[in-house]
Specification:
single chain; 207 residues; alpha/beta; Rossmann fold; 7 strands
């Protein structure tokens, strides 16, 4: 039986997953902002990626700023099957779903916004649908990064697989720094503390 997380329990991630697609043609696209986020964390924490064929992932492990063991993960299964790789890692290391923080793009949030949550639905995101299906629960933390909605002249697929404009690219570098701050605070004081401080933050394009 799954033990419910009590309100007083701090939710501290042990695995941080960035969602994206592995081929170079997807680099720097809106849909791959999850990959970019964990790349920034790996650089900051001086962790090096290596391919793990058992899990079908790029994986790195090291110590968080709090000196706790932490795994960073980029599934190589393509977005629609992200959960397969995540489940392989959690099974192998015997980690509960609530220890997994998933970072991914969200069209329902404007560019410049973050949203940290303890649980929730997939909201139409295929990577999250797969993750929820494979973990067998919605009760794991996630950090959504706003990529904005597509305009009337462009369909959703073209939008998410497109690249950010130069102005948006500059803004997203600031957003990724906020992601680092939110993650590091969550590792230290729990996801709920990160939610209280970062869900209201908004990065805007300077004129």
């Amino acid at each position: 039986m799954t033990k419910a997380t009590s309100p007083s329990t701090l939710v501290i991630p042990q695995v941080i997953v960035g969602l994206g697609n592995p081929e170079s043609k997807y680099d720097r696209t809106r849909h791959n902002i999850g990959f970019e986020a964990v790349d920034v964390l790996a650089r900051r924490w001086q962790m090096s990626w290596s391919e793990n064929r058992r899990f079908q992932t790029l994986l790195t492990e090291g110590r968080s700023p709090q000196r706790e063991k932490i795994f960073l993960l980029k599934p190589l299964t393509y977005m629609n099957r992200s959960g397969q790789a995540i489940r392989a890692v959690t099974d192998w290391y015997k980690l509960p779903p609530e220890s997994v923080l998933v970072i991914y793009d969200d069209m329902d949030l404007p560019v410049g916004r973050l949203r940290l949550r303890l649980s929730g639905s997939a909201g139409g995101h295929n990577g999250m649908k797969s993750t929820i299906a494979h973990l067998g629960t919605q009760n794991f933390p996630r950090l959504r990064i706003g990529i904005g909605k597509s305009g009337a002249e462009k369909n959703s697929v073209s939008h998410v697989l497109g690249k950010f404009s130069p102005a948006e690219t500059q803004l997203m570098s600031e957003v990724l720094q906020l992601v680092v701050e939110a993650v590091e605070l969550s590792l230290k004081q729990g996801i709920e503390k990160g939610m209280s401080l970062y869900n209201s933050r908004n990065v805007t394009i300077n004129d």
